[in-house]
Amino acid sequence: MALEMGARLVLLDEKEAREFARKLDLKVLGTIGLLIWAKKEGFIDNFKVYLDALQIKAGFRVSQQHYKHVLKEVNEEK
């Protein structure tokens, strides 16, 4: 569908779906990537609040290693 619509970007979190989309030469962005973009563009001030809410309220899973990595990337490391 993304190819038919001429989409430049697809939002996906599932590993297999991301891999398949990349094989089709689609640019992929996940939920965390979207939050990183929003932080860097100034749409949100506190990345950690949103990431924590995703984990607590929505059951979004992220490894501790990746959690620390993305906090560092947006300059919100502990």
Number of helices: 5
Helix content: 55-70%
Beta strands, count: 2
Q: How many strands, which pairing sense, and closed or not: the largest β-sheet?
A: 2 strands, parallel
Strand content: 5-15%
How far apart the termini lie comes to 41 Å
Look at the structure and give the mean pLDDT: 94
Please tell me how large the radius of gyration is.
Answer: 14 Å
What is the string of helix and strand elements? HEHEHHH
Q: Per the principal axes of the C-alpha atoms, what is the gross shape? A: globular
Oligomer: single chain
For the largest beta sheet, what order do the strands appear in spatially?
1-2
User: Structural class, please?
Assistant: mainly alpha
Unreliable stretches covering 5 or more consecutive residues? none
Keywords:
two-stranded parallel ribbon; 58% helix; globular; 78 residues; mainly alpha; 5 helices
Kindly describe this structure.
The chain has 78 residues and is mostly helical. The chain is built from 5 helices and 2 strands; from the N terminus they run H-E-H-E-H-H-H. The chain has helices at residues 2-5, 15-23, 31-40, 47-58, 64-73, and strands at residues 9-11, 27-29. A two-stranded parallel sheet has the order 1-2.
